[in-house]
Amino acid sequence: MAEDLKREKTRADFVDKIWGVFTSLKLVITLLLVLSVLSVIGTVIEQNKPLQEYYRFFRPETVDLFGRLGLLDMYHSWWFTACLALLALNIIACTMERYPFIMRGMKKQGAVLDEKLEAGLTNLAKIKYSLPAETVESRVTAIAGKNFPARPVVTEAENARHFFYEKGKYTRLAFFLTHLSVLVIFIGAIAGSLFGFKGYVNINEGELISSVQARQGENKGLNFSVKCNSFNVDFYPNGAPKDYRSDLSVIRDGKEVIRKTIRVNDPLSYEGITFYQSSYGMLPDTVTFEIRGKDDVPLGNVSAPFGKRVDIPGGDTRIEVADYRERFNLSDGSEAGPVVGVNLYSQGAPPSGIWISETRPEMNRYGAYSFEVKGVKLRKYTGLQVNKDPGVWVVWTGCIMLVAGIMMAFFMSHKKFWIRIGKDKKGRVEVTAGGMANKNKHAFASEVDRMVGSFKEVSS
Amino acid sequence: MTNSLLFGISIFVYFFSMVLYVSYLAFRSETLGKVATFTLLAGVIIETAAISLRWYESYQMGIGRAPLTNLYESLVFFAWTIAIVYLLMERKFGIKTTGAFVTPFPFIIMAYASMNPNEIQPLVPALQSNWLISHVVTCFVGYAAFAVSFGVSFLYLFKVKAENRPAKNPGGLLNYLPASDLLDEVGYKTIAIGFPLLTIGIITGAFWANVAWGTYWSWDPKETWSLIVWLIYAAYLHARITKGWRGKKAAALSIVGFSATIFCYLGVNLLLSGLHSYGG
Ligand code: HEM
Fold first, then answer.
1. Which B residues in the span 188-247 are in contact with A, Cβ-Cβ below 8 Å?
2. A residues 365-424 near B, CB within 8 Å?
3. Is the Cβ pair B124, A241 closer than 8 Å?
4. Inter-chain contact B210–A57, Cβ cutoff 8 Å?
5. Is A231 on the interface with B (CB under 8 A)?
6. Among A41, A276, B158, B254, which one is least packed by beta carbons within 10 Å?
7. pLDDT value of position A35
8. ∠ CA(B56), CA(B60), CA(B65), 5° rounding?
9. How much distance in Å is there from the Cα of B277 to the middle of ligand 1?
10. What is the ipTM of this complex?
11. What residue ranges do the domains of chain A occupy?
């Protein structure tokens, strides 16, 4: 029996201890600092880069070790997540711990200014008047009413009238707002990563797409199609880009449901999926080459549509236009101007990919052939980032709670103020007044001083 | 460009106000103190004119944007807010002796800014957003508050040391400084201003990133460092609630916090992105 009790007690002690750890401010401070140190590491070792990049800075063994420790994708590692989970538990425990105190603080109590309460007030003032009690009351309460807009609780007790004023009671809830907001933000972020996706898509001018490339690699089908009606760029006189615009239409069951011109900072949303202007580029529609063979023998002109293999006259080689760059840097760093990327297919040889310069034909000799670009018809495409994040509104709600909570915690307080109007021993009217606040006590003390100063002027 | 002329003048005025605050600390003449405050105020007024003029000139150039969009502009804005936050704190708490520890900031920052390119550049599309202004203003006023807290906390550490020693020299410099309790209080009050602003700054930044790129948080070095700063000051605030962490430990955290702030602002661009550009 005694053994059982003892075991019960040790268990209770143990639970108490755990609870104590989780509600301790030391754990909060430690966790916040640990999280910040971990984040420092995450910015010193760049995250989620291709492995080759790490090999340039670190030895292969080191990169391997980093990889196994999760340091290359730190923010998704189990230990970083564990720290966040610990913080969440810590917040939940603290909130539960403080709940009864905060609720008690909000209860209306002590509407009567008795001697016991008097002893606990700072800035207590007693003023005597030679005016009738009714006059004093109406004037004094008018002054107090300016500082405390809500009606006072009036009590008749101990041969005196008591006025209890109160302001900012609900600012005591700031603790919940601030701390629970962090949990709300976490929930929003988790919801986003579970039920959302991130991807991108390139749409040629005039064409439409109905699936996008997700970050994780797979193709993601949409319930609708998006058409790029046109894409435009404006430049400043100094050549810097000024505005990227894609005129997009959302098409569902063959009908256009939305049409919008998106820009950077002004995306298009449909059914929870948002399309952001992210990049642009150009692809050749058709390229015309003038081709010469051995000893500069002209072989004639060839028009090659994008992605189609076309025969080069007088041989067994076919040419296919595969790419285009507006600017191309040679390996020595010099500019080669715009180039067309083509693939050459010859019988019995592996296909070879080459760049053909548009402006420097003297460079375009490959094997038996030399090429000169005679004409390029380009088609622009717009590059869109595509996202779905159903958690984002939860995150913003958390953010608003956080800011509201912090503002309340720092700049507001629960203020209480009492006035008692009675008679002193000689039968003169006596006003006793004092207040208390749960925060910013200095500021409230001077507010009370100013009010009491005005009370004193009533007598003169 | 006339705005640069005005900025140039304000650098000199800030320099003189720094010299005056230091002399005030050395000679303790009330007149010197008054002149110091007025000189700093004059510096702020001249710089205000410079910033407004720069804004106006950008409209005349057909660019039309708030002057808050590159390193130069953010530096001058930072110097300006530090001077203003300090002046307000001096007025509220009457702690003029801390001026010698805070006023070097506006001067040094302005001098550093003048070494950076200062043309008025048009904005690339990503920066054309109203969120930019609210984001930059809140972040930098927050940083400025942290800068003032840093100066005050630094002074606090000196002062406590002196208070714990038997007074050898009652007329000494350290005895002339505000009481350590007051310094502790001001160190906290300024962070209580800076923390909500930084919070709003990070949130507006996240909101903007979400509108521009579709992700509110991508753990890039700048974002991560702003979170680091935020976590340190959050730790500071909780440290103050526990009695044992007041005073020295809190002052140390304020100093660490401001060092992280400076790294977030300048170090990330100079050091981390340097690595980045090399790696890429
Ligand atoms: C990221 C997480 C957290 C944030 C952003 C945060 C933020 C804040 C803020 C802004 C305040 C107001 C400061 C003041 O009134 O002086 C505060 C107070 C407080 N926090 Fe936290 N906090 C976090 C986590 C925690 C945790 C996990 C605990 C649990 C031990 C905790 C316990 C407290 C306590 C006891 C107060 C004092 C409340 C009062 O005196 O009214 N906080 N917190």
1. 192-193, 195-196, 199-200, 203, 206-208, 210-217, 219, 221, 224-225, 227-228, 231-232, 234-235, 238-239, 241-242, 245
2. 385-387, 389, 392, 395-396, 399, 402-403, 406-407, 410
3. yes
4. no
5. no
6. A41
7. 94
8. 55
9. 39
10. 0.89
11. 2-100, 109-168+413-456, 182-280+383-404, 284-378
State the amino acid at position B260 in one-letter form: A
Pairing of strands A268-270, A273-292: antiparallel
SS3 B166: coil
Residue of B nearest to A74 (CA): B219
From the CB of residue A427, how many other CB atoms can be counted at a distance below 10 Å? 7
Q: What are phi and psi of A197, to 5 degrees?
A: -150, 165
CA A206 to chain centre: 34
Q: Is the beta carbon of A406 within 6 A of some atom in ligand 1?
A: yes
The CA distance from B105 to B79, in Å, is 7
Residue A170 DSSP class: G
Q: Are B191 and B149 in contact (CB under 8 A)?
A: yes
- Render A95-138 in DSSP notation, one character per residue: HHHHHHHHHHHHS----S--HHHHHH-EEEEEEEESS-HHHHHH
Contact B199 A29 (CB under 8 A): no
- Domain spanning A109-168+413-456, CATH architecture: 2-Layer Sandwich (3.30)
Which residue in the block uniquely carries the two structure tokens 């409209």? B59
Nearest to A319 by CA among A330, A329, A310: A310
Predicted structure pTM score:
0.84
C-alpha span between A156 and A169 (Å, rounded): 24
Residue ID of nearest Cα to ligand 1 atom 29: A94
List of chain B residues whose C-beta atoms are within 8 Å of the C-beta of residue A266? 211
Residues of chain A with Cβ-Cβ distance to B275 below 8 Å are 46
Rounded CA-CA distance B67/B58 in Å is 8
Measure the CA–CA gap between A386 and B73, rounded to whole angstroms. Answer: 33
Which of B238, B240, B246 to mutate to test ligand 1, by most ligand atoms within 8 A of the CB atom? Answer: B238
Q: B276: pLDDT confidence band, cut at 50, 70 and 90? A: very low
Average the pLDDT over A126-135 and give the result. Answer: 88
Token pair for residue A374? 């005679």
Residue from B135, B193, B215, B278 whose CB has the most chain A CBs within 10 Å, to mutate: B215
Would you call A103 exposed, middle or buried from its count of C-beta atoms within 10 A (0-12, 13-18, 19+)? exposed
Quickly tell me which residue has 């958690």 as its tokens.
A391
Amino acid at A141: T
Indicate if the pLDDT at residue B271 is higher than 50: yes
Q: In sequence order, what are the residues at sequence separation of 6 or more whose Cβ sits closer than 8 angstroms to the Cβ of residue A446? A: none
CA distance linking residue A338 with residue A329, whole number of Å: 9
